[in-house]
Design brief:
Blueprint lengths: L17 E5 L4 E2 L11 E6 L3 E2 L4 E3 L4 E13 L4 E9 L2 E10 L3 E12 L4 E10 L2 E3 L11 E8 L1
Antiparallel strand pairs: 1-3, 1-12, 2-11, 4-5, 5-10, 6-9, 6-11, 6-12, 7-8, 7-10
Protein name: C1q domain-containing protein
Main location: secreted
Keywords: Secreted, Signal
Length: about 150
């Protein structure tokens, strides 16, 4: 099988866009509508991540890889939390964790086309208490991270 590469020529040069941000403090019992602000930015090439409102704002249009990972500890039995990724206010990805008195690590990934200026953020859609979403822990590093990069424009 041969591949015809003549149609693969690109006239557009994509800039490098990548970010990685994490929580530094634990968040106790966030309620529905809570908007995460990942306050420790480790990488922000293209200046897309905004620590003031906790969202990634696409600096250029293109296909992006976006990921959120987190660690939660439940305080009692039957705790539930549903976290969502939103683009311009529309739900595009979610995860739901239901657990009984233990620690859960989870993540969700989204690959989506973003237009320049589109906002992407993570928020709590639904929850019951008690639970803690872990931030940075000195002995093991970050537990909750929001990250992404431009695949192609």
């Amino acid at each position: 099988m041969s591949i015809d590469y003549k149609n693969c020529h690109r006239d557009t040069i994509c800039p490098t866009v990548a970010f990685r941000s994490q929580l530094t403090k634990n968040i106790n019992n966030p309620s529905a509508g809570f908007h995460f602000v990942f306050d420790d930015v480790k990488l922000n090439i293209g200046n897309g991540y905004n620590t003031h409102h906790g969202a990634f704002v696409a600096p250029v249009s293109g296909i992006y890889f976006l990921n959120f990972r987190f660690t939660i500890s439940a305080g009692t039995s039957s705790s539930l939390i549903r976290l969502v990724m939103k683009i311009n206010g529309e739900l595009v990805s979610h995860t739901m964790s239901a657990f009984e008195s233990h620690i859960v690590a989870d993540s969700f990934t989204n690959i989506n086309h973003l237009n320049a200026g589109d906002d992407v953020w993570i928020e709590v859609k639904e929850s019951n208490y008690p639970f803690v979403i872990y931030g940075d822990q000195a002995t093991v590093g970050p537990h909750s991270v929001f990250e992404g990069f431009l695949i192609t424009c």
